[in-house]
Amino acid sequence: MPITRSARKALRSSQRKRNFNMERKDKAVGAVKAVKKLIASGNKKEAVKALHVAQKALDKAVKHNTLDRNAASRKKSRLAKMIKKLG
């Protein structure tokens, strides 16, 4: 446990930031899973719609430094590639 007053404040701040980051990351991961599920079922039209939601979630995570920008870019690229394969 933190002892000094400033350390207690820092702990509160870091816990709050952790919660925000976990929420953003969970949304991004959930959106990516939804796209993959639609791709597996072969529903291209719905997968494209879900891809836009996933891209938005990934971009927001990058904007707030929750995810690395290259990792998000890689995920978006791979999802788009999978959808394109559906033909």
Output the CATH topology.
Methane Monooxygenase Hydroxylase, Chain G, domain 1
Quaternary form: single chain
Which regions contain 5 or more consecutive residues with pLDDT less than 50? none
Strand content: under 5%
Highest CATH level, the class = Mainly Alpha
Alpha-beta classification: mainly alpha
Mean pLDDT: 96
CATH superfamily: Ribosomal protein S20
Question: Residue share in helices?
Answer: over 70%
| Number of helices, where a helix is a run of at least 4 consecutive DSSP H or I residues | 3
> What is the domain total for the residues?
1
Helix/strand order, N-terminal first: HHH
Q: N-to-C terminal Cα separation, in Å?
A: 56 Å
User: Which of globular, elongated, flat, extended, rod-shaped describes the shape?
Assistant: elongated
Could you give the count of β-strands?
Answer: 0
Taking all Cα atoms into account, the compactness measure Rg is 17 Å
Question: Biggest β-sheet: count, sense, barrel?
Answer: none
Question: Architecture, according to CATH?
Answer: Up-down Bundle
Give a written overview of the molecule.
- This protein has helices spanning 5-41, 44-63, 69-86.
- The N and C termini lie far apart (56 Å).
- It has a single domain, classed as Ribosomal protein S20 (Methane Monooxygenase Hydroxylase, Chain G, domain 1, Up-down Bundle).
- Helix content is 86%, strand content 0%.
- Helix 1 (5-41) packs antiparallel against helix 2 (44-63), helix 1 (5-41) runs parallel beside helix 3 and helix 2 runs antiparallel to helix 3 (69-86).
- The mean pLDDT is 96.
- The protein has 87 residues and is mostly helical.
